[in-house]
Design a protein that fits this description.
single chain, 108 residues, alpha+beta, two-stranded antiparallel sheet, 19% helix, flat
Length: 108
């Protein structure tokens, strides 16, 4: 998990390997190698989630996690026009626990 901003309650996940220091270090190394996190490029300080567990009304409480990512290389980052999550899809009956993430790029 890239940062606490991507977790509705970071303290609840402190012992989870996906959210620990090693995972975050690997994420930072990936970003330092030239990749750009598209959501954070356009929404640097906004809590945005892509996953809500089925338990305890997580979706209804917006108790989510950002587990799905678009990474852009240096050739595409300048073409990023918009990115978002279709959160309402997650609220539909029989939906996945993940919401669709979409991205729009400017034409060359």
């Amino acid at each position: 998990m890239p940062s606490d901003l991507d977790i509705y309650k970071p303290e609840k996940y402190k012992d989870n390997a996906l959210f620990g220091p090693e995972s975050r270090k690997l994420w930072r190394e990936l970003i330092k190698s030239g990749w750009t996190d598209a959501i954070r490029k356009l929404h640097p300080n906004e809590p945005i989630y892509t996953f809500w567990d089925y338990l305890r009304n997580a979706y209804g409480r917006n108790a989510g996690l950002r587990l799905d990512h678009f990474l852009l290389n240096e050739l595409l980052v300048g073409r990023l026009k918009a990115i978002g999550v279709d959160k309402d899809v997650r609220g539909r009956e029989h939906s996945s626990d993940h919401a669709p993430v979409w991205m729009e790029l400017k034409e060359e």
